[in-house]
Amino acid sequence: MGARYLINSLNADRQKLYSIAHFEFLYSIAFVVGHDWGAEVAWHFCLFRPNRVQALVNISIPYRQQSPELKPTQAFNQVFGDGFYVTQFQVRDCQHELSSNIEEQRSHFPNMTATILKKLLFINAPDPLAAAPGVEIIDFLETPSSLPPWITQEELEFNACWIHGRFALLLNWKQLRPRQGLKIAIPTKFVNIGFQSFGTKDYINGEVFKSSVPDLEVLVIDGHHFIQLEKAKEVTQAILSFFKNQSLP
């Protein structure tokens, strides 16, 4: 399960897509857009293949350089406790994730994931987003009484079917340690949302983010987690206008 969310593996897939596009359509360079976990993949694709990216727009998840010594799961636990939503979404035991019960876990996961996604549509929770001790985050978050007009039940369930397990933050940290300290050299526009958890507002306005992504523009659009759906026209315009200003070599 967790291996599906390893950044190295996902960027290898992206590299294959790039190669196909280059061979079939003679595209030599890409404009990249990412959101949430896709933003993490996009940040690191720009680190892995900067010569193949003309410009980047990332939504809601900023680029954070991690400590090469302190494990991210340990850092989150120290600061936010076991109830922090990122901690609860991690693979706790990789061997368990790869156990003989994996098919049974997969059969139940889409329903649970659809519930989590629905709860994330309109987050109304404290910052940091953490459940009380002994409480699962899925039980802590309120469930909207109805879906917003910008997403249907069918679309929600479709998205849930593509999520097959917990995220492997620790495994990614181990694989990416050799690249810690590198900067994003690509022209970048970062679109942040109104709800900003665990200090994101201060971070994106601070010097660490700006020094890690030197060629950076920041746009804040008031909304929720799925801002690209909630404010589709505004987000699309921001993406297209930024890319239009980035001339091809």
TrEMBL record:
It comes from the Eukaryota. Keywords: Hydrolase. Pfam families: Abhydrolase_1. Gene3D superfamilies: alpha/beta hydrolase (3.40.50.1820). Residues 32-232 form the AB hydrolase-1 domain. InterPro entries: AB_hydrolase_1, AB_hydrolase_fold, Epox_hydrolase-like. The keyword Hydrolase applies. One of its GO terms (molecular function) is hydrolase activity. The keyword Thylakoid does not apply. Belongs to the AB hydrolase superfamily. Epoxide hydrolase family. This is AB hydrolase-1 domain-containing protein. It comes from Dillenia turbinata. The lineage of its organism: Eukaryota, Viridiplantae, Streptophyta, Embryophyta, Tracheophyta.
